[in-house]
Task: structure prediction
Amino acid sequence: MYHTMRGVTSLLLAAALAGVVSAAPWTAFDPAGFEAAKRSGKIVLLQFMDRDCTSCAEQERVVSKLFWGSSRADWVGYRVDLVRNADAAQALGVRSRSTLVLFHGPREVARNVGVIQESEILALLRQADIPEPRGRAGPRPGLRLPPRP
Result:
């Protein structure tokens, strides 16, 4: 009985923690919301993806972790389905899934295709001056990131 309860408790804890990471404020793409967020000066991250893309899922997990750990409240992340939002992709010159496009206000500040390594995504986010997640004292030994501007 004790082992069963311990197993159930472990499963519930794992589910709760998974919910915390997936609860990051990703929003389905909405052109009007995207334009409003840019006009208001927010940091906007677009992740162009499709549901069959494994690298997109890994990229989303890493980005959610970094954003969830950020103390900033002035950002919004949009998942942009490459098929359903082909017009937006074409307007922004995005031709492949697993593309991250970062805006700070109305200005595009960074773009990268296919990155899934935390260090590379963190370097991309630094271009919008997003601080590192709480609890991290900086890069791990041996990890070289570009200096902040």
